[in-house]
Amino acid sequence: MTATVTLGAMRPLEDAQEFVLGSCPPKPPVEVARADASGLVLAAAVVSAEVVPPFDNTAVDGYAVRSVDVAEVPVELTVVGEIAAGAAPDRPVGPGETVRIMTGAPMPDGADAVVMVEDSEHLGTDADGNERVRLSASVSAGAAVRGAGDDVQVGDEIFSAGVVITPAVEAVLASVNAQTVSVHPRLKVAVLSTGDELIDDGSPLELGQIRESNKTMLAGMLAESGCDVVDLGVVRDDEAELERVLRSAALECDAIVSSGGVSMGDYDVVKAVLGEIADMTWMQMAIKPAKPFAFGTLTRDDGTRVPIFGLPGNPVSSLVSYELMARPALRRMMGHRRLTRTSLVAIADADFRRQPDGKVHFARVNGVFADDGRYHVVPVSAQGSHQLAATASADAMAVIPDGEGVERNGEVAVLMLRG
Ligand SMILES: Nc1nc2c(c(=O)[nH]1)N[C@H]1C(S)=C(S)[C@@H](COP(=O)(O)OP(=O)(O)OC[C@H]3O[C@@H](n4cnc5c(N)ncnc54)[C@H](O)[C@@H]3O)O[C@H]1N2
Ligand code: MOO
Fold it and tell me: Where does the record place the MoaB/Mog domain (predicted)?
């Protein structure tokens, strides 16, 4: 395989994103049990085979009545039975009669409305042994009755392809007895970090060593994106070992995310190995941070192309690169229609000064929705690409176009990082 090295010219972000998305098509649909589908994206519309609610039922606890019997109130009626939720009525309601009924219970024949229990007074048993109640509210036909099918009818297309299976969607699927659904499968994504300087076993650091942190972050971000994560650990600077790990990950996983080794280092094991076994493009993107980025595919024997995202090693750059490059692509593979984070126009509560350098800057910010209804942002305290401590609690990234920056009180586009 040959590696394409883009030197000199920086690639516009949108161009790089389009290039990556083009190699990350949605995974073919699979039929899965509803219980395993939470968070996944429907690949086909769901048409209901059942009605919801399945029968006319009461919306309140009270007395099922014939509405004509309560046209004039107060009125006394004979209580001829009781229907709890889950029970079936065993007799109709005749003139002058009522049935005590609990929320959700089926309406008995004859009754066409329900008087709330708050509007009743239990009178006890009369001389003939009949239980009597006085009702003080007049209700019209249909009052407090939830008709069969007034939520979902047989044949309704309740969800279209592309809908995300949230807990509420899952509940509706349960309510119409959809036992399986056609979805884009959950992605299994391998994550690794590379470099002999990385220590992840808690041992004391020697000069030159640092603690591994990117993989910890990326594994969490992948899980947050709805992927199953396969942690490949820290792979040492050993070509044979890295090749073995990557090849085996490509057999088992739908995508691979690595951090480190994508910049200009004289000799880099990641570059050497990926250049050998995958079809990689090494880019310098016109953004800061996260300028260096690599993307490619490793082709399995069966022809499946497994995307590989080579994120930069600097921790903040790794985070930004994941957000801008890997997350949208992985979401596309999982069938999501909306690939990017929520964006909005915010008010800069501080100067966002910068110098022209041909790049779009992504400043990490904290923000609040203020009383004026606008989102107000200030930069986090440190903006270096090695200063993850400041970025970790950022709410959003402010997009500062090439130029002199944005002045305090000016408008600035932001990409939300959470929520
Ligand atoms: N001559 C140039 N040097 C650099 C350039 C450039 O354009 N020309 N770009 C800089 C930029 S921008 C970035 S970002 C970094 C990207 O470097 P690499 O992706 O090659 O990553 P490394 O060199 O391996 O590491 C960079 C930095 O990050 C630390 N790191 C790496 N992995 C981890 C990890 N898993 N956990 C925590 N920290 C990690 C590593 O120790 C380095 O400090 O290149 C610039 N250089
Ligand atoms: O991507 Mo580097 O992002 O500017 O530190």
Answer: 190-332
